[in-house]
């Protein structure tokens, strides 16, 4: 074999060996890249355990926005493993985090079932291909904050009127110092505005106390007979002035556990409301119905009634069904709101039935208690259970 042939053979062998080595290197590089990709897609150790221990909604999504792990509360928002991340705004947040390679927080809306909720969502990368999204429902927090802002704004507005009136009347009295009749006239109006201002301030403080987290302190077994009698008596002057007759009927000797002053004010507010919205010469009924579980107190009037579209708003602070009438009667728009919160603080509920032109019935339901031992003994001695009494006074028909 001549030298030329030997050289060609050596060259071919070298090329073959070089190609094999290059192929081995390429395979090794590809294997390394696959390992890196798999490592970036795989969940870090302990991630699922951490998610399952979270009270907030939390999910981990991959580059295709598919959920690969989720906390238990995430199911409330329809977020489960192997399901695409819901919500256009939420998906846009994840894409932004991926591009920016930095954590981002946004306030957005998601649906919990069919209910829209306001949430705070924070997205952050945990591997090159996985993103952690933590979602906190802030709907109630924002609602409370909005109520606080509305309360401050409404209170400022309501206080402005009587404060301005007091200031003007004081100036009028000073200007009319030489006219005793005018002084007496302005002084009587000043007294009325001062009383209105005092009532408004007192009701704002009472409502604030009822809405606070503090528990009621003056708790005892309260006689509903005592509460109803005191509530009617507190409105007797207003009833006489308006020509309204207040009738009490229904069961006797019912008891609840609560604060007698708070309950008396709540029922008194209902009676005052019924008087204010009833025509002269009308009748307001206060009836009680009770059994071993619940005591019901119904206050019924034959007044102007409330349109169905406005009934859900009557328990809002400062809401008035009839602005002109409320101004004439000195209403603050806080009475029914106080009723709602007072009843809720006693573990009860208040319900409204109303028809325009036919009147309204507010029914308070409270958990019943047995009452004093002597009353319990007397009940046990009864041989025959009396028929269930209506919560409405005689002559009052059920709506």
From TrEMBL:
Membrane spanning stretches: 6-29
Which InterPro entries did the record assign?
BphY/WalK/GraS-like (IPR050351), HATPase_C_sf (IPR036890), HATPase_dom (IPR003594), His_kinase_dom (IPR005467), HisK_dim/P_dom (IPR003661), HisK_dim/P_sf (IPR036097), Sig_transdc_His_kin-like_C (IPR004358)
Extract the GO molecular function terms from the UniProt entry.
phosphoprotein phosphatase activity; phosphorelay sensor kinase activity
Report whether Plastid shows up as a keyword of the record.
no
What UniProt keywords are attached to this protein's entry?
A: Kinase, Membrane, Phosphoprotein, Transferase, Transmembrane, Transmembrane helix, Two-component regulatory system
Q: Entry's SMART domains?
A: HATPase_c, HisKA
Q: Which Gene3D superfamilies match?
A: 1.10.287.130, Histidine kinase-like ATPase, C-terminal domain
**Composition bias, kind Basic and acidic residues: at what positions?**
387-399
EC category name: transferase
Any idea of its EC number?
2.7.13.3
The biological processes this protein is annotated with in GO are: cellular response to phosphate starvation
* Transcription is among the record's keywords: no
The molecule here is called Sensor-like histidine kinase SenX3
């Amino acid at each position: 074999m001549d030298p030329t042939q030997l050289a060609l053979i050596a060259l071919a062998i070298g090329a073959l060996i070089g190609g094999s080595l290059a192929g081995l290197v390429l395979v090794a590089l590809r294997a390394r890249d696959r390992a890196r990709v798999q490592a970036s897609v795989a969940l870090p150790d302990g991630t699922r355990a951490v998610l399952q221990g979270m009270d907030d909604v939390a999910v981990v999504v991959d580059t295709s926005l598919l959920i690969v792990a989720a906390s238990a509360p995430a199911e409330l928002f329809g977020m489960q493993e192997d399901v695409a991340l819901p919500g256009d705004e939420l998906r846009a947040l994840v894409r932004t985090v991926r591009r920016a390679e930095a954590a981002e927080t946004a306030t957005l809306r998601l649906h919990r079932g069919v209910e829209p909720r306001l949430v705070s969502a924070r997205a952050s990368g945990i591997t090159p291909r996985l993103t952690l999204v933590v979602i906190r429902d802030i709907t109630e927090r924002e609602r409370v904050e909005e109520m606080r802002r509305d309360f401050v704004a409404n209170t400022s507005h309501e206080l402005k009127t009587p404060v301005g009136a007091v200031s003007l009347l004081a100036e009028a009295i000073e200007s009319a110092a030489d006219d005793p009749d005018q002084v007496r006239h302005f002084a009587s109006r000043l007294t009325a505005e001062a009383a209105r201002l005092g009532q408004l301030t007192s009701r704002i403080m009472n409502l604030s106390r009822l809405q606070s987290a503090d528990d009621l302190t003056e708790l005892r077994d309260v006689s509903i007979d005592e509460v109803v009698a005191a509530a009617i008596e507190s409105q007797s002057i207003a009833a006489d002035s308006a020509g309204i007759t207040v009738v009490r009927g229904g069961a006797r000797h019912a008891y609840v556990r609560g604060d007698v002053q708070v309950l008396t004010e709540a029922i008194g507010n209902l009676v005052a409301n019924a008087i204010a919205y009833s025509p002269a010469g009308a009748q307001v009924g206060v009836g009680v119905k009770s059994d071993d579980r619940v005591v019901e107190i119904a206050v019924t009037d034959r007044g102007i009634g409330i349109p169905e579209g406005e009934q859900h708003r009557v328990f809002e602070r400062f809401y008035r069904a009839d602005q002109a009438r409320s101004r004439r009667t000195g209403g603050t728009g806080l009475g029914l709101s106080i009723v709602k919160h007072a009843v809720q603080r006693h573990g009860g509920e208040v319900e409204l039935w109303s028809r325009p032109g036919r009147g309204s019935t507010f029914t308070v339901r409270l958990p019943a208690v047995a009452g004093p031992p002597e009353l319990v003994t007397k009940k046990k001695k009864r041989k025959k259970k009396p028929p269930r009494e209506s919560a409405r006074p005689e002559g009052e028909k059920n709506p």
